[in-house]
Amino acid sequence: MHFPFKILFAFFVAAFAFFPLTDSDIWWHLASARDFFENGLAEKDPFCWTPSRTPWINVHLFFQWIVYAVHSVAGAFGLVLLKSVAWGIVAFLWVLPCKRKIRLFEFSLAVLCAFIFRYALECRPIFLSLLFLGIFWNLLPQLLPPISKKYFLSAAILLFTQWIWIRTQGLFPLSCGLSAMAIFLSWNRMTKKSKIFSSCFLVILFSVPLWHFQGNYLFAYPFGLLDRLMGGSAASQIFALEIAENRAPSTLLLLHENTASMATLLLLVGIAAFFILKKKCSMEIWRIAWLLIAAFLAVFAERNLTIFFFPFVLLILWNPSFILLLRKIFLKIFPQKKAEFGNVIFIFAILILSFSAGSFLRSLPAYFEGKNFQAISQERVPMNAVIYLQNHPLLPNQNLFNDDRSGGYISWKIPAQKTFADGRFILKDSTFMANYLNFAKNPEAFFVAADSLQIYRALMPTRYISLWKNLDSAMQKKSDWKNVYRDDAYTIWDKTISAK
């Protein structure tokens, strides 16, 4: 009876992922795909008028082709449906290896965690990274003792998966780490022949980036991501401290941001560490080791939440210690009620499932305006402000200033309009990032830069992102800046003609 629970868990995850597009980078990806089909693979930043690193490496190309094709056919609603189905498949792949009977209570805990973390299930390349890593999660046992007859077929599938992954997202080294861990932790059980085969597989797997055009740059790309995670350079320190999704869950908790999900994440990391250190986990040793690494990544940065969540769910479903611990606590409190423990756990499971499903259903009306599903979270992108930009274009020698979250959407809607910044901060150096953030904290620095950089227009969020409120307030006191547009979430300021 455990297999239906795996399918049901995937269904719940897919349902929880069915919410409007909230990640603003999706528009940058769509604009990049369109630019590729019109102009080929770009070697310089085609969107920003500010300097970007060269050569300009677009590691997300295959992801962009997929979302561009879906958007061309079904629009933004198609992207919502795509991410919903994709996250459901990811969930199924990660719990598929569970070999023991899944109980209702364990299943209900997994569903509750998925509900709490549902807003991390965005339309980002990470869902393909976790899908590809899920393939490794399921096929790597074919390469470990006892050696399967499907060894070479599984190895070929994994290498092909890696080839696709490399042009999908920069997290592709995760497969190398997982594979190396699984093989070396099984090394003592391998024959001499299987050791040779496994070593060759790892060498080929590590070399797959070199099979692509710009292979040397693709091979080096993940080191930049690692630097951003570990804070080794000036740019990475700014990136980790100032960009919300790169901050540690403990930092966000202290700042009272995403309090419920961050507190839950830290709690789950603690639970995982407890059961692993107490050796109360029945998963294979390489899966346990991977869970520890995923927990480490999640503690370092909030964006790694999903990397940790799915192997943690497998821990919940595979580990009978959760039920045994609860039973022990129950019997200490109610020693005479031993026979009633099963009924109590069943009732709790039903309540947890009812809460998760009911809360999700209550959230659905907020996604509709009349009978129409609102596929785009309008407070996350300047939808109406961009209409103003389309109707009031700048002159060729005039530059636009915008916040990073707006950049991709502007590039998608107005291809001719070059932006100041977008979500690809990995392509910018530390000086740019420091100046950009200083504009928000020190408005006078912006006004000086506007004169030297020929900035004649500024588009900023004013409600849901508080970073730019200081600059917006300072502009109200400047006679040479005029507020030409304002709505509930965004504002546009133009430098007046007299100041030119």
TrEMBL record:
TM spans (from-to): 65-95, 126-144, 172-188, 200-220, 259-277, 284-301, 307-329, 341-361
Keywords: Membrane, Transmembrane, Transmembrane helix
Lineage: Bacteria, Pseudomonadati, Fibrobacterota, Fibrobacteria, Fibrobacterales
Identification of the protein by name: Glycosyltransferase RgtA/B/C/D-like domain-containing protein
